[in-house]
Amino acid sequence: MKDEKSTARSLQSADTERRNAADVEDGRAGSGAALKPVLHEAASDRATAPTARAGTGIRVLKRNMKRNGSRGCVTRKTRFGSRERDWLKGDAQRGCVCLYGASEPQPPASGPQTSTTPQPDLKLVLCSTNTTAEELCAQRDVQGLYLQLHGDLIRRLDPSERPLQMVYDYLTAMGYEDPLRVQQEAANSDLSCMIRFYSEKPVNADQQERTLLKGVFSVRKGKTQLHKWAERQVILCGTCLIVASVKDSLTGKMHILPLVGGKVEEVKRRQHCLMFSSAGPQAQTYYVNFDTLADYQRWHRQASKVVSQTISLVDLSCYSLEEVPEYLFYCQDVTHLNLRHNFMRLDGPGGLSNFNRFAQLKSLNLSHNGLGVFPESVCEILTLTELYLSCNGLSAIPPRVDNLQSLQTLCLDGNRLDSLPEELGSLVQLCSLGLSFNDFPQIPSVVERLCALDKLAMAGNRVETLDLCCLLRMSHIKSIDLRLNGLRCVKSETLEPVKHLTQLDLRDNRLTSVDLSAACSLETLQCQRNQLGSLTLSGYTLRTLHANNNCLTTVNIYPVPNQLTHMDLSRNLLEYLPDWVCDSRKIEVLDVSHNLLSELPARLLSSMSLRKLLAGNNKLERLADLLDHIPLETLDLQHNKLRELPECFFYKALNLKYLNVSANALETIPPSSQSEESLSTLQELYLTGNNLNENCAALLVGHQNLRVLHMAYNQLLSFPASKLSKLEVLEELNLSGNKLKTIPSTVSSCKRLHTLIAHSNHISVFPEVLNLPEIKLVDVSCNEQTEILLPDSLPSTLQELDLTGNSSLILEHKTLNLFSHISTLKLDQKPAVTAGDAQGTSTLWDHGYAEMCGQRNKLCVSVLAVDRFGDSPEAAYGIFDGDRNEEVSRLLQCTMGDVLAEEIQHSSVDSVYMCNTFLTSHRKLGMAGQKLGASALLCYIHHESSEPGSYFSLTVANVGTCQAVLCRDGQPLALSKVFSLEQSAEEMERVKLAKAIITEDNKVSGVTCCSRLLGCSYLFPWVLPKPWVHTEPLCSQDEFLILGNKALFQKVSYQEAVSTVLAVRDPRAAAKKLCTLAQSYGCRDNVGAVVVALHIGEDSCTCEPPLLTAEARGPPAPTPLPTSVSPGDPATPSSSSGIASEFNSEMSASEVGSEAGSTASDEHPSSGPTARPERRCSLHPAATLCNMGPLASLGPGAHPALFQRQPSSATFSSNQSDNGLDSDDEAPLEGVISNGSKLEVEVDIHCCAFQLRSGPPESPKDLDGRHDLRGSDYPNSKMRRQNSVVVSATNGCLLAVCGREISDLKKSPSTSSLFGKKLSNGSVVALEDSHNIIEVALEAPKKKSGYFAAPAQQDPEDQLIIPPSLEQDVREQLRGQSPVVPGPPPPSTPPSARDPNWDHPHSTIPGLHPTTVLQQDVYDTAL
């Protein structure tokens, strides 16, 4: 973990390397007129500062800036006055630099922020790109400026460096292209989580403690009482305790006490006293009495670490040091000094020039220090045996390196070397040389003279030809690493054998043919991911061969490799296996999957050494009979054409523990034994995607050790109850996609069962699994459940329950309360259908999604799905995969839709607004995105506004490994680009040019295999957030869209995914099937899929293309304004609706990140063109409010059901939001009770109506004549969002909620489920069906302290029924109780515009229809 964190420190050296490029641009950057320096103080009249220097172009704003509660965050509106903004607009090379004071760079997130917490002294400095750090220091009267990247190391800027230009270069490298946008982003305070400047170096107390401890304390030497206590200066530095002979002075004699191997103990007779003792027979002892408990604990903690070491190691890595403490030179026993990821300088008392004072130093690590040149003073440390100088930008090695005659290991990886001095050849003891990721065009000739060298690492260089004759002259080298070199040829012209080479790594090159028959001692060869068509090897000593991902049709090895134990030939073009494979006597693991094999030799299956055979994704039609008992333990035969297995298969393969025969054509399986007694040891059996019936289930009884059974998507009509009870150790059972009507009650005999997945069947009775002691997950979605019979209590182990897609399921209040403790409960949501929705986007597209944890403990995949994005027929879908973290994917899910809505208003160019959406989302991750990251894919369906009369287009943007596939005419069309180092040669080259270290598992700095991610900003510039953007016009041949994460498409090909969805059609059931197939094919990771069904015909839409690109497109709003459905005709979702609610009760108010729910509304505003009425087709009429009146007065882009903010359910492991605001700072919400892991919301559902103030009068003619959401009759075509109203008719009672009340309710994680879909990972997806909080609240349990766990059926007492005879009385009483609202009364609604659902036997209250435009505040009263 420490290595992963410290990888980011190498970015600091990149700043120095970019300095020269920045100087070249000086002339262009300084073209703007210089600004005379003016210092603006708080409450001043903007007078010129007397200390300002002419010509520097600097302004300093030191105002009483309002903070939004976060540390170092300034409200945007209070930053600049009009004068500053006008100055900035004059030139794009002008900008703002945020200077922070000397406080800790990122305070810990523990505990609430109080008024005594020190705030950073933040000042905004206006300057230009040619303003240097020296000029800024003179203006501010400070000693120097300091730079911090990604919350990591802090380095001092050189006087000539230009801070604003550095920020601009950073943003440009991220992906911003527009200079004006770069200028705007540079002034954003959120950017401080990525790049931040300090006017003084921040003090980190913890770092200071680990580097150096000193103070004046009472000291006594020796264990006897003869010595007296005396006040002395005491220092703990490195490996020694240093005691001065004179108080408060270091001029006299220094007493050095080595602590490594010694001991530190508490002295119980004296308070706050420690005894320090050295090791050895002549050990010395010192007693130190501390003044305070804090000092005592601090010294005890640090000294305990030192004495526990076995070697004299001093680790000062990642401390932003420019020099070591001078006291460290007193530690003459130091043998290992680690200074990686610092900024060490040559000069100074503790600089590198004085390191020869270490008399016993053997190992020195100076990697990632940005040295630029080789520190020749190191050549004077003659005792060195290990020297690490990786990633320092070195271009040459000095000849003086020959002084280091004791050197055994020299690591020079990640530099800019292209040659080595001949003097290096005199290092006769050098046995390991690291030259990876440099610029060597060939293996240096000096290597031939290094007779002790046995390992040569040259990955990531420019070697294009490997000559075996050259290797003959390097007879001492046994291992060579030539990965990622662009090798094109291996010359083997010599007939003389190369006897010394045992390991050769040729991965990720451009080889088409390799002949290594001359390397007769070769033991391990790795040549994956080339273009090999032929491979010839010597088999004398060959033990391991990795040659997957090539174009091999055969492999020639002579003689037979009898030492071969592991061979990987997967993903090639093999049509048969060579004979030598069967003759090899010791082969244990053989992978020949993804080839063209039509048969497996019988001799291979009967091998007495083979333990693991992977032969999936071939063309096997039969399996040869087994002649004898075999030791095979793992067999994978998925995706073949097998119709049967040999009859004797199971009782000849008694050691078999894993068998996967999914995706074949099996109609039966062989018996487990010939007799009733079975000796089977089979533990995992995967039979998904065959033609098995219920008779096969009886044959499973003999496998009594079976733990995992997958029989999904077969032809099972039932599962024999008596047979299921015999599988007593079964832990995971998947019977999805069959024709089961019930799960046998004998499933309760499987006491170890923790996972039951049985979706997409015809099950009407809930399985009896809730009594099982270890049950964790139950998925019975997409069935025919009608009711659930529950025990009195549920097992505490139950974590997830999926009941979606059961359209007839009715849950009582008692059942919902019983489910309240389940962390993930997935239920259908009742759709509220309006006339606009019924004829609108529902005919164009609908979606379904599925997420499965697999064998991981947490779900790190999140989905964004908005069927109605804004007020026009548009949609947005996304999938986010955090790999090992769940925080980033949740944050992206909560914010990315809002960011897209904002960016659309800034630009109409798809590549621009999609790219900026990703870059802005990356910035909004804040502190969470410094060390964590996620793959992201976003799809946006919209009209192509640039072409009048056009149809829909699909714009896709992605980073990482999430992928999108469009089905067009039944064939897959890939829309995304996989940013993986193994699959993108272009990205691999870019990362290599940036001098990243790519580890042997093809990960950047050993962290991630992706070259582009959102988050992981500490890996900049190697890992970037700039996405791939592609726009595809949609046509009538486009049937559906599939979004999936890496795990899905690793196991399911594009063609199989398309064929699967074509066979299912229902989007939700199809997404479920895709995830189930991936798991049955061997996926053990998180898997997620989104299926979007497209119904876009050539005559589907005749709308005039939208002309409002800036304001017409609003933020994500899944559905038009809902209309309540009468209880007599409840709206229930179909199995294809893909609408579900998922609730997570393990959320507390303190776990909600304050920035996670923030929107792009704090971005820079832009004005759009004037709105005009637009031609609408019958499929997309202008939406109306319950058909009662127009919504045009809401202004362009406004909608009564649109919310600019999505509720956040993102959980931070650090309990701190990304903008630095501790979650405990948030004010408690009224009515919300938190008990640590759950939230209860107190609400009285009978008092949920709000009295409305009347708007301007409107005639019936006006009501009928205005139907355009985008047009506006409001005076300024603007409307305050908090005044928008959600109105619904519920059983004759008009209810309305003002936006202010909505925003309050949305702050609560518990009530956030009313405004969005909570996913199984606790995050929220924008609603597709209902934004009406009152409607949902009426369906919630009536207990005041109950949970909004799921919608329930309305109770009769919840209905407000008014007999016709009392209508007038009730109206008068309501008027008397409500406050008098000035202005004319609201207009009556014409009968033609009235909602048909209101016309039921019980009359409603006429004349109480509220208007949709509120010009004043809304008063809430009890109805």
What's this, in brief?
With 1423 residues, this protein is an alpha/beta fold.
The largest pleated sheet is described as: 24 strands, mixed
The helix-and-strand class reads alpha/beta
| Number of helical regions | 27
Rg calculated over all Cα atoms: 36 Å
**What is the overall shape?**
globular
Uncertain stretches of 5 or more adjacent residues: 1-56, 62-78, 105-118, 834-841, 1101-1360, 1378-1423
Distance between the termini: 59 Å
Can you give the mean pLDDT?
Answer: 75
Strand content: 15-25%
- Please estimate the helix content: 10-25%
Number of strands: 62
Describe this structure in words.
By secondary structure, the chain is α/β, with parallel strands linked by helices. It is globular, with a radius of gyration of 36 Å. The strands form 11 sheets. The chain has a 24-stranded mixed β-sheet, with no helix packed on it. Helix 17 crosses helix 18 (910-924) and helix 22 crosses helix 23. It is built from 27 helices and 62 strands. Strand 46 (933-943) and strand 47 (952-959) form a beta hairpin. 16% of the residues lie in helices and 19% in strands.
Looking at this protein, list some descriptive labels:
alpha/beta, 16% helix, disordered N terminus, 1423 residues, single chain, disordered C terminus
In terms of topology, how is this protein built?
Layout: H1 2-6, H2 11-24, H3 26-29, E1 38-40, E2 59-61, H4 82-89, E3 94-100, E4 123-128, H5 133-140, E5 146-149, E6 154-156, H6 163-174, H7 179-186, E7 195-198, H8 205-211, E8 213-221, E9 230-237, E10 240-246, E11 249-258, E12 263-266, E13 273-277, E14 285-289, H9 293-307, E15 313-315, E16 336-338, E17 363-365, E18 386-388, E19 409-411, E20 432-434, E21 455-457, E22 465-467, H10 468-472, E23 479-481, E24 489-491, E25 503-505, E26 513-516, E27 524-526, E28 534-538, E29 544-546, E30 556-558, E31 566-568, H11 579-583, E32 589-591, H12 602-605, E33 612-614, E34 634-636, H13 649-652, E35 658-660, E36 684-686, E37 708-710, H14 721-724, E38 732-734, E39 755-757, E40 777-779, E41 800-802, H15 813-818, E42 824-828, H16 835-839, E43 845-852, E44 861-866, E45 875-881, H17 887-906, H18 910-924, H19 928-931, E46 933-943, E47 952-959, E48 963-968, E49 971-974, H20 985-993, E50 1014-1015, E51 1028-1033, E52 1038-1044, H21 1046-1051, H22 1054-1064, H23 1067-1080, E53 1087-1094, E54 1140-1143, E55 1232-1234, E56 1239-1241, E57 1250-1251, ...
Parallel strand pairs: 1-2, 3-7, 15-16, 16-17, 17-18, 18-19, 19-20, 20-21, 21-23, 22-24, 23-25, 25-27, 26-28, 27-29, 28-30, 29-31, 31-32, 32-33, 33-34, 34-35, 35-36, 36-37, 37-38, 38-39, 39-40, 40-41, 41-42
Antiparallel strand pairs: 2-4, 3-4, 5-6, 5-7, 8-9, 8-14, 9-10, 10-11, 12-13, 13-14, 42-54, 43-53, 44-45, 45-46, 46-47, 46-50, 47-51, 48-49, 48-52, 52-53, 55-56, 57-62, 58-59, 60-61
